C-alpha cells in the first residue's frame, strides 16, 4: 500500500484550532469520524487515550504520533494536522508539538498498511522532512513531501541491508544487535529502530535491529549474529524472547529510551557496563515493566494480568446467571424452566473457570509459561470442595472446612505458583546443559504441580477457607449502618482514579464477594454500589455541561454528549478527559457524588446480581427505583458541585 493512499489529503487539517493535548485528540478523532474512517468516535478515542497513558506519543522535535488499533476503524488511514502556535503534548523533549499524525489502524486484516506505517515512522526521523512539513501550506504539498521521502528511504534501507549483511560476515568495527518493540507496534517500534541505527552509524558501530511491531517480527536476529555481537540493546515495552541472549551484555529499557537517548544505550554495551544476561534454560522473556520497576508496581501489574483475563468469565457468566434468575422468579415453572436451567448452567460454567484463570495468569506474569499450569491447578483447588483422583479415592482440598478458599485463595495461589516456579528455575540453574531440555518438559511441570498441591492442601486452603468463611459471614451479618459505610467507600473509590488501582480494587472486592456467593443479597448490594459509583462520573460530567455550558469548552460540551452513552454502559473512563484537564475540581466532585450514590444503595438495600452492564441491567435490580434514585442523586450532586466550583471556560 502506497503511503499516499494512507496519508489522504481530504483528512488533513492545516490549521489546528486546539490549544491543549486533549483538544488536539478531540479535534482529530472527530475529523476521522466525520470523514468515515472510524465508525465509533468514543471507542477509538478511548484507545488513543489508553495509549497516551502508557507513554506520551509526543516524539520530540515538534512531532506527535497518536495512534491506536481499534475495531471501530473502517479502513487504515493517517491524518496529518499542523498547529502554527504549537501545543504542549507532553513530548519527550518538553517542547511544543507542531506536526501531528494520527494513525488509525483496523484490528486484523493484512499487514500491508502496517508496512506503510512503519515507513512513515522512519521518514519522520529525517530533519529535512520535518522542516519541509512545517513550511508546507497545502495538503498536496504534504503528500508530495512524503511520497518523495518514502521513495528515498526505501532505497536507503536496501543499501543498509546490504551493508548489514557484509558487517555480519566481517568488519573491524564493533558489532551489536538490538530489539525494539512497543504494545501497539505502529510508531515507537520503528522510530526507535531508526534512531539506534543513526546513533550507531555516528559512533562507528555496526548494528542490526530486530523490530517486533504489529506486522510481526522483522529482521529476525540469527544465532550467528547474536553470537558475534558484543552485546544486546532491548528497547521494548512488551514481551521479547530473551533466552537466545544468554551470556551477552544486555541493556533492557523502555522503547522511548532508544528514541530519546540511543547513544547512552549503545555506550553501555561498548563500555561493558551493562550486566551480563543469564537465562535459565526455558524461554525467558523481558516483560512490559522496566528493570527498575518498584516491587508494588510489579505486584500490581501481575495482579492486573490475572484480573484482565478473569473479567470476561465474571461478566459473561454473571450476567447470564442474573438473567436466568428472572426466568426463575417470574415464570410459573421457576427452577424447572428450560431457559433458567440453560442460562444458569452456562453462567455457572464460566464462573467455575474464574478463580483458576485468575490464579493461572497471575502466575504466568511472574514465572512465565512454566508457571501457568501450577497456577491454574492451584486456583482450581481453591475454588472446589473435592477433587476426585479416580476410583474410590478423593482428597478434600478444603481440609474439612465448610467453605472453599475462594477468590482470596485463588489470588494467593497465583502469586505462590509464580514465585514457586521462579524458585525452581534458580535451583535448576546449575544443571548440566545436556539435561537443560528436561526443565520445561519434566522438572517444572512435575515438581511445580506437586509442591503447589502440598502448599494448597496444608497451608493456603486451611487459612483462606477460614478467612473466606469469616468475610462471608461478616458481610451477610452486617447491619444497615455498616453496610451503608461499606457501599459509600466502595462507590467513592470508583471515582478516585476512574479505571486505575483504586477503581480496580473496589471492583475486585465486590466481584470477589459476588463470585463467592452469586445468590447472596449482600454481594449483590456491593456490586450495585460499585456499579452506581462507576456510572456517576460520566453521567455527572455530561449533566454539568448541560446545566453550566459556560464552564466548559466546546470540545468538552461535545464530549459531554457521548458521556451519556458511556455512563449508561458503566464506562467510567468517559470522565477521564475532564479529570485530566481539571483534576483538582473534577475528581473530588465525582468522589463525593459517587459516595452519595453508594450510601443510597446501602440504605435502600439495592442489589444488582450482575457484575457489569450499568443501566442495561436495571431490570435485574432487586430495587429498581432505588437503583435509579442512587445514580440520579449522585449525578446531580457531582454536577452541581462541579458547576459552581469551576470558573468560566476561556
TrEMBL record:
<dbReference type="InterPro" id="IPR002178">
    <property type="entry name" value="PTS_EIIA_type-2_dom"/>
</dbReference>
<feature type="transmembrane region" description="Helical">
    <location>
        <begin position="405"/>
        <end position="422"/>
    </location>
</feature>
<keyword id="KW-0597">Phosphoprotein</keyword>
<keyword id="KW-0598">Phosphotransferase system</keyword>
<feature type="domain" description="PTS EIIA type-2">
    <location>
        <begin position="5"/>
        <end position="149"/>
    </location>
</feature>
<feature type="transmembrane region" description="Helical">
    <location>
        <begin position="624"/>
        <end position="645"/>
    </location>
</feature>
<dbReference type="InterPro" id="IPR004715">
    <property type="entry name" value="PTS_IIA_fruc"/>
</dbReference>
<dbReference type="Pfam" id="PF02378">
    <property type="entry name" value="PTS_EIIC"/>
</dbReference>
<feature type="transmembrane region" description="Helical">
    <location>
        <begin position="480"/>
        <end position="500"/>
    </location>
</feature>
<feature type="transmembrane region" description="Helical">
    <location>
        <begin position="375"/>
        <end position="393"/>
    </location>
</feature>
<keyword id="KW-0808">Transferase</keyword>
<dbReference type="Pfam" id="PF00359">
    <property type="entry name" value="PTS_EIIA_2"/>
</dbReference>
<keyword id="KW-0813">Transport</keyword>
<feature type="domain" description="PTS EIIC type-2">
    <location>
        <begin position="299"/>
        <end position="650"/>
    </location>
</feature>
<keyword id="KW-1003">Cell membrane</keyword>
<keyword id="KW-1133">Transmembrane helix</keyword>
<keyword id="KW-0812">Transmembrane</keyword>
<dbReference type="InterPro" id="IPR013011">
    <property type="entry name" value="PTS_EIIB_2"/>
</dbReference>
<dbReference type="InterPro" id="IPR003352">
    <property type="entry name" value="PTS_EIIC"/>
</dbReference>
<feature type="transmembrane region" description="Helical">
    <location>
        <begin position="442"/>
        <end position="460"/>
    </location>
</feature>
<dbReference type="InterPro" id="IPR036095">
    <property type="entry name" value="PTS_EIIB-like_sf"/>
</dbReference>
<dbReference type="InterPro" id="IPR003501">
    <property type="entry name" value="PTS_EIIB_2/3"/>
</dbReference>
<keyword id="KW-0762">Sugar transport</keyword>
<protein>
    <recommendedName>
        <fullName>PTS fructose transporter subunit IIC</fullName>
    </recommendedName>
</protein>
<keyword id="KW-0472">Membrane</keyword>
<dbReference type="InterPro" id="IPR003353">
    <property type="entry name" value="PTS_IIB_fruc"/>
</dbReference>
<dbReference type="InterPro" id="IPR006327">
    <property type="entry name" value="PTS_IIC_fruc"/>
</dbReference>
<feature type="transmembrane region" description="Helical">
    <location>
        <begin position="521"/>
        <end position="549"/>
    </location>
</feature>
<dbReference type="InterPro" id="IPR013014">
    <property type="entry name" value="PTS_EIIC_2"/>
</dbReference>
<feature type="transmembrane region" description="Helical">
    <location>
        <begin position="339"/>
        <end position="363"/>
    </location>
</feature>
<dbReference type="InterPro" id="IPR016152">
    <property type="entry name" value="PTrfase/Anion_transptr"/>
</dbReference>
<dbReference type="InterPro" id="IPR050864">
    <property type="entry name" value="Bacterial_PTS_Sugar_Transport"/>
</dbReference>
<feature type="transmembrane region" description="Helical">
    <location>
        <begin position="310"/>
        <end position="327"/>
    </location>
</feature>
<feature type="domain" description="PTS EIIB type-2">
    <location>
        <begin position="176"/>
        <end position="271"/>
    </location>
</feature>
<feature type="transmembrane region" description="Helical">
    <location>
        <begin position="586"/>
        <end position="604"/>
    </location>
</feature>
<dbReference type="Pfam" id="PF02302">
    <property type="entry name" value="PTS_IIB"/>
</dbReference>
Amino acid at each position: 500500500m502506497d503511503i499516499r493512499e494512507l496519508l489522504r489529503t481530504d483528512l488533513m487539517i492545516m490549521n489546528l484550532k486546539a490549544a491543549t493535548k486533549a483538544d488536539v485528540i478531540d479535534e482529530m478523532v472527530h475529523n476521522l469520524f466525520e470523514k468515515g474512517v472510524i465508525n465509533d468516535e468514543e471507542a477509538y478515542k478511548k484507545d488513543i487515550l489508553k495509549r497516551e497513558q502508557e507513554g506520551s506519543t509526543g516524539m520530540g522535535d515538534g512531532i506527535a504520533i497518536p495512534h491506536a488499533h481499534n475495531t471501530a476503524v473502517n479502513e487504515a488511514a493517517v491524518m496529518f494536522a499542523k498547529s502554527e502556535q504549537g501545543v504542549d503534548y507532553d513530548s519527550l523533549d518538553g517542547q511544543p508539538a507542531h506536526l501531528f499524525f494520527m494513525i488509525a489502524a483496523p484490528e486484523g486484516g493484512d499487514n500491508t498498511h502496517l508496512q506503510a506505517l512503519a515507513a512513515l515512522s522512519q521518514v519522520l526521523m529525517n530533519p529535512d522532512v520535518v522542516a519541509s512539513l512545517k513550511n508546507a501550506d497545502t495538503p498536496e504539498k504534504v503528500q508530495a513531501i512524503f511520497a518523495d521521502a518514502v521513495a528515498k528511504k526505501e532505497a536507503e534501507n536496501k543499501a543498509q541491508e546490504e551493508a548489514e549483511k557484509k558487517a555480519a560476515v566481517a568488519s573491524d568495527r564493533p558489532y551489536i544487535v538490538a530489539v525494539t518493540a512497543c504494545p501497539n507496534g505502529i510508531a515507537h517500534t520503528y522510530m526507535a529502530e531508526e534512531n539506534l541505527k543513526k546513533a550507531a552509524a555516528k559512533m562507528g558501530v555496526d548494528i542490526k535491529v530486530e523490530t517486533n511491531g504489529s506486522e510481526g517480527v522483522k529482521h529476525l536476529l540469527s544465532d550467528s549474529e547474536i553470537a558475534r555481537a558484543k552485546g544486546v540493546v532491548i528497547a521494548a515495552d512488551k514481551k521479547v524472547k530473551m533466552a537466545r541472549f544468554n551470556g551477552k551484555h544486555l541493556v533492557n529499557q523502555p522503547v522511548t529510551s532508544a528514541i530519546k537517548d540511543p547513544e547512552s544505550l549503545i555506550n553501555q554495551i561498548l563500555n561493558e557496563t551493562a550486566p551480563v544476561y543469564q537465562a535459565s534454560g526455558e524461554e525467558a522473556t523481558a516483560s512490559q515493566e522496566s528493570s527498575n520497576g518498584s516491587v508494588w508496581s510489579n505486584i500490581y501489574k501481575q495482579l492486573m494480568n490475572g484480573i484482565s483475563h478473569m473479567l470476561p468469565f465474571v461478566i459473561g457468566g454473571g450476567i447470564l446467571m442474573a438473567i436466568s434468575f428472572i426466568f426463575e422468579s417470574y415464570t410459573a415453572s421457576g427452577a424447572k424452566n428450560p431457559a433458567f436451567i440453560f442460562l444458569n448452567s452456562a453462567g455457572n460454567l464460566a464462573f467455575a473457570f474464574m478463580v483458576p484463570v485468575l490464579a493461572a495468569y497471575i502466575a504466568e506474569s511472574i514465572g512465565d509459561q512454566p508457571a501457568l499450569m501450577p497456577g491454574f491447578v492451584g486456583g482450581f483447588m481453591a475454588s472446589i470442595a473435592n477433587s476426585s483422583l479416580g476410583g474410590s479415592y478423593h482428597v478434600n482440598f478444603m481440609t474439612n472446612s465448610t467453605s472453599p478458599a475462594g477468590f482470596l485463595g485463588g489470588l494467593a495461589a497465583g502469586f505462590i505458583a509464580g514465585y514457586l516456579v521462579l524458585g525452581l528455575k534458580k535451583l535448576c540453574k546449575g544443571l548440566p546443559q545436556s539435561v537443560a531440555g528436561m526443565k520445561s518438559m519434566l522438572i517444572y511441570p512435575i515438581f511445580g504441580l506437586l509442591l503447589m498441591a502440598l502448599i494448597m492442601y496444608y497451608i493456603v486452603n486451611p487459612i483462606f477457607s477460614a478467612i473466606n468463611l469469616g468475610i462471608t459471614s461478616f458481610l451477610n451479618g452486617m447491619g444497615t449502618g455498616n453496610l451503608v459505610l461499606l457501599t459509600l467507600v466502595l462507590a467513592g473509590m470508583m471515582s478516585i482514579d476512574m479505571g486505575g488501582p483504586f477503581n480496580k480494587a473496589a471492583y475486585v472486592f465486590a466481584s470477589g464477594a459476588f463470585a463467592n456467593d452469586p445468590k447472596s443479597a449482600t454481594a449483590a448490594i456491593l456490586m450495585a454500589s460499585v456499579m452506581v459509583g462507576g456510572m456517576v462520573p460520566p453521567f455527572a460530567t455530561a449533566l454539568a455541561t448541560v446545566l453550566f455550558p459556560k464552564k466548559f469548552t466546546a470540545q468538552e460540551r461535545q464530549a459531554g454528549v457521548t458521556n451519556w452513552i458511556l455512563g449508561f454502559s458503566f464506562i467510567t473512563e468517559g470522565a477521564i478527559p475532564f479529570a485530566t484537564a481539571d483534576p483538582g475540581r473534577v475528581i473530588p466532585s465525582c468522589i463525593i457524588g459517587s459516595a452519595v450514590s453508594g450510601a443510597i444503595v446501602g440504605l435502600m438495600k439495592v442489589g444488582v446480581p450482575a457484575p457489569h452492564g450499568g443501566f442495561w441491567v436495571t431490570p435485574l435490580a432487586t430495587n429498581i427505583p432505588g437503583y435509579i434514585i442512587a445514580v440520579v442523586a449522585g449525578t446531580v450532586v457531582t454536577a452541581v458541585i462541579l458547576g459552581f466550583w469551576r470558573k468560566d471556560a476561556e
